[in-house]
Amino acid sequence: MIDSLQPSPDSSTTIDLTQQRQFLLDLLCQLAYKEGDFVLSSGQRSFYYINGKQVTLHPQGALAIGRLLLSSLPLDTAGVAGLTLGADPIVSAVSVVSALENRPIPALIIRKEAKGHGTMAYIEGPSLPPGAKVVVLEDVVTTGQSALKAVERLKDAGYSVEQVMALVDRQQGGAELYESTGLKFQTLFTIQELQQRYKQLQA
């Protein structure tokens, strides 16, 4: 079962976070969501495409993402991480906002291939203690393979990973993949929410 990333009802910032969520949804519809004939990175064809970087690299978009995801991270989160390139601005946004909120959480970036020089590392960012709890972040989840690769790299490095968070779930197998591997999955928006709002804004 996927949990929607909603602000806690007893939070003093609930109203503000609800407004931030609506703002982010509208921004995704206006800048990232397109309809047409597309081939996805998975090789699947689709009548729509979501270019998350149009929003994750947008100044107000990044701020909203950072605040919303940070508010839903477990209190014992020691780091946030994601597979380059899609997750890079997301983990950075969460880390920067965490510092502003006096809850500093380092960001880690997972390379698709090991660095060809120096430390030959797969993971870029501060070194965390063995067993540190790291949450994997993603922009758009389709099959779920990208985030799962990040999870595997982090576990190989000795970190504990129990959760994946995403901006949008296309609901094409990602949630089921995470569940089958024992990972908790939370998403800000489902594709249905995005498409419904897109139609409203087009009307």
Automatic annotation (TrEMBL):
Keywords: Glycosyltransferase, Magnesium, Pyrimidine biosynthesis, Transferase. Its EC number is 2.4.2.10. GO terms for molecular function: magnesium ion binding; orotate phosphoribosyltransferase activity. One of its GO terms (biological process) is pyrimidine nucleobase biosynthetic process. It comes from the Bacteria. It holds the Pfam family Pribosyltran. Its cofactor is Mg(2+). Coiled coil: none annotated. InterPro entries: OPRT (IPR023031), Or_phspho_trans_dom (IPR004467), PRTase-like (IPR029057), PRTase_dom (IPR000836). Residues 112-177 form the Phosphoribosyltransferase domain. Orotate binds at T142, R170. 5-phospho-alpha-D-ribose 1-diphosphate binds at R111, K112, K115, H117, E138, D139, V140, V141, T142, T143, G144, Q145, S146. Pathway: Pyrimidine metabolism; UMP biosynthesis via de novo pathway; UMP from orotate: step 1/2. It catalyses: orotidine 5'-phosphate + diphosphate = orotate + 5-phospho-alpha-D-ribose 1-diphosphate. Catalyzes the transfer of a ribosyl phosphate group from 5-phosphoribose 1-diphosphate to orotate, leading to the formation of orotidine monophosphate (OMP). Belongs to the purine/pyrimidine phosphoribosyltransferase family. PyrE subfamily. PANTHER family: OROTATE PHOSPHORIBOSYLTRANSFERASE, URIDINE 5'-MONOPHOSPHATE SYNTHASE. Homodimer. This is Orotate phosphoribosyltransferase.
